[in-house]
Amino acid sequence: MSNLSSLAKSSAIMTAGTLTSRILGLVKASLLAMAIGVTAVQADAFDVANKVPNTLYMLLAGGVVNAVLVPQLVRASKRKDGGEDYTNRLLTLAFLILAAVGLIATLAAPLLVWLYSSGWGPDQMALATAFAYWCLPQLFFYGLYTLLGQVLNAKSSFGPYMWAPVLNNVVAIVGLLVFILMFGTDKASPHGLSTWDPGMIALLAGSATLGVVAQALILIWPLKRIGFKYKPTFGFRGVGLATAGKVAFWTFSAMLIGQIGFLIISRVAAGASVPGEGNASNAAYSYGYLVFMLPHSLIAVSLATALFTSLSKNAANKDTEAVVGDFSMGVRMVGLINSFAVAALIVLASPVAMIIAGDGREQAMAVGLVIIAMVFGLIPFSANYLAQRVFYAYEDAKTPFFIQLPQVIFQSLLVLSASIFPNSVTVAIIGLAMSLGYLLAMILSFTLLKKRLGDIDLRGILTAHMKFLVAALIAGIAGYGLLFFFPDFALSGQWQAFVSTAAVGTLMLIVFLGACYLLKVRELHSIIGVVAGKLRK
């Protein structure tokens, strides 16, 4: 089982990087809303174009890299050369595939925009396609970033991978500031479909892509610092890549199923985008998802990244007890933070939406409703994410595929039903459908994991989460009580929303921690013990 102090240190470094990146991401999102709006048709055009490369990457390589690389490199490190030749061949093959896919995707920009949109007029399609030509090269650099980052993670160098997106956001923010200085805000100088020229398109979309390029290339420096030297090595037969290929096949299949589900979400959400109505649609979905992913990225991803190397080593050594211990600790630690996040985001959904999406009470309430619907799925989403890492540590990507399949079918049926509701609540219904899908996936994952390992400390996990949720409920009541005294102030402007969120959020955190302490939540006491031990040194 991983040492809690060591795990806490690694997670803290990654969490700090992710937190900095996410804060800058919120700044970037706010500036983007200022520049081109949130519920405007041009905002949806850019959102789809900028989202397609990330979506395609996750389909074609993201899950594959995350599932394959670390376990394979950990096992390869036992070879005489420390796995150097194997790593070079695996990276060379991945680079070639990414380059080919990136080129084909860029050439297919019009088709991809059509796939991820619905009911758009020719002008909106043309603008989105122009954005896409600039954004689709991101696909290759997302892949490069993840490949290099996973090499670092396999060698227990976790910090650079989580800090690199900070540079991405800085570059994108500079680009947005230049755009606003040159072309004004959407409110001061409305950027309708007919106002976009090649220079505006190149600046907005090009700076977004430049940020992803910087995020990938910055990882070359820490790789050199740990002594890793990449040498292009060809010849992919007979070197042990068969297992990696098998895992990659099932992971790709799972990602394909997942992206079909996302395609349905994107098209149904796009159908709510009607010029002049200002409904929550794709852009509002992206803002809601950004908020939803914040606590998951800060805690679950950081902790899972630190645990994955340990899980892979323990799985390779057939130490089931250590695997179960790591998994149980990870789920409980993540659940502690996520329980507070659920309560805080339900109470403060609309003020948080106003902070990132700009002034406008109706707009904030529309995005806030989306956040609330999504955040109900946060705890099962993160728990399922950690369960997947256990399967991957055993080089098993087939089981996650058969978990993903019923989840996506169930979720997609619910998403399609959202189109029968008024456009004003379509995206909120989509968010609720996603939450229910995450719950189903978690139940399936835990059931199959228990069957494989014999025990996953389910009783301990459930007992801990019951305490977390009681503390979260108490904190939520306290937050609503404070917010009751100034409901209009909280949504009267961005700075007022920020002040309200800070004040209510601080009160809720104090109440939550106090309730956890009184409920004798052992995870909190463990964290306090680690911190106290560090302070005494």
UniProtKB/TrEMBL annotation:
One of its GO terms (molecular function) is lipid-linked peptidoglycan transporter activity. GO terms for biological process: lipid translocation; peptidoglycan biosynthetic process; regulation of cell shape. It is found in: Cell membrane. GO terms for cellular component: plasma membrane. The chain crosses the membrane at residues 55-74, 95-116, 128-148, 160-181, 201-223, 244-265, 285-308, 336-358, 364-387, 399-421, 427-448, 468-486, 498-519. Pfam families: MurJ (PF03023). It is a multi-pass membrane protein. The keyword Nuclease does not apply. PANTHER family: LIPID II FLIPPASE MURJ. This is Murein biosynthesis integral membrane protein MurJ. It comes from Brevibacterium aurantiacum.
